[in-house]
Amino acid sequence: AIVESFFHSMKAELVHQRMFENEIDLVAHIIEYIEFYNRDRLHSSLGYQSPSEYEKLAA
Q: Would you give the distance in Å from CA 37 to the centre of its chain?
């Protein structure tokens, strides 16, 4: 369920929002999105905090 949620978010926020010039451009944007998702994106399961904020408060 977690992976399905991630792919849904990625498609809605990245893939369906733009056209990519080529496969290299697509891969670069996916990598940027994964970094954003894992560091800065607010997650409802974390009380609408980013993972970085959540880790700082939990430490």
A: 3
